[in-house]
Amino acid sequence: MPENIILKNKFKKCQILQKINGGSYNYIKRALGDYAGFLSGWYDYIVNAIPPAFYCIVISEYTIILFPQLAHYSTVLSISLLVAFVLLHLSGVKNGSVIQQITSFLKVICFVALVTACFMYSGVEVPPIKTDNSIFQIGLIFGFFKSLQLIIGTYNGWNGVCFFAEENENPSKNIPKSLYSGVLLVVAIYILVNAAFFHVLPIETIAKSNLAAADVAKILFGDSGAKIVTIISIFSLISILNAFMMIPPRILYGLSRDGFFIEKGTQVNKGGTPIVALLVSSFFSLFLICIGSFEVLFSFAAFISIIVWGLAYYSLLKLRTTEPDLPRPYRSFWYPWTTIIAIIFSIALLAGFIYSDPKSFIIIVGIAIVSYPLFLVLKKQK
């Protein structure tokens, strides 16, 4: 009898691990039902399908800085870059993984070299920061939440490894390790880079700068400093673009498998790439490259991210209550308090975003209303 129970639990665990591509969508669907999963899955897809187009355009603009003669070919460069990465990922997951490792390594080396050069510089005295008691003025609060939308859009992707759980040999060990080490490394680099910049330039100059890194590099390396920062930025952006090329197809693959997208979305080639999902996502990126206007899209994506994250946090509480006997090799720290705090912060940010960007909120509500009849049709076909 005990052996049968063990085998049953192992079988249940295998069933769960076989269907975890697509990130938080799977857990929201399991905890809150098919419609919540359908809506959050498509929300999450939109969030992660916007960045590839954005990074293609930014990399092309940085390339034009290095080669001004290409100034009239910005869109062509962006599309060419997108096509190159589509071909790379069509060749298989392994090649995309190798490129990710190489570009990530080069990016870290470049940032460490820049930080070291900053601290070796004799520096300019940083004047004391003036305090301002008007921090709670309405206009400043509005600007604070508006800037947070862009910042969250910039940092989106920190949990990207979760979208590849199904392709990982030991997800219960490797995913938490990757998340913690990645976040800590990014925090360390971010703090070091800011401290290094403040060592070289006064805070007033940095506040007025459009690209602080270029101004710092110009002081350190002369007129060639801007080109050095541009090269570092290109390496950094290629690494991010490569990662985001892999995420949207995994979400679309998960949605297709559950009948929330076309059946062919589940097709995987010999290299392990969801080929149809990749091509559909790439055409969406191509469309965004052609229309531009990414500040609005990034703000909108950040808005949706908060909703998806909040639902995922709540799903953790719900699943551990409704399905307490599921195998859970990873335990959340200080559960349930950390999860509750995360939910409270998500609600606070959502309220702030609604206040600062009511148009995006109306669009999101509109998507939810329109999506329900579509969900019913797809569910009936399924």
UniProtKB/TrEMBL annotation:
Major subcellular location class:
membrane
Query: Superkingdom, according to UniProt?
Result: Bacteria
Provide the protein's localization.
Membrane
Q: Is-annotated flag, keyword Transmembrane? A: yes
The terms under GO molecular function for this entry are: L-amino acid transmembrane transporter activity
Keywords, ordered alphabetically: Membrane, Transmembrane, Transmembrane helix
GO cellular component terms attached to this protein's record: membrane
Q: Would I find DNA-binding among this entry's keywords?
A: no
Organism this protein belongs to: Flavobacterium johnsoniae (strain ATCC 17061 / DSM 2064 / JCM 8514 / BCRC 14874 / CCUG 350202 / NBRC 14942 / NCIMB 11054 / UW101)
**Protein name in the entry:** Amino acid permease-associated region
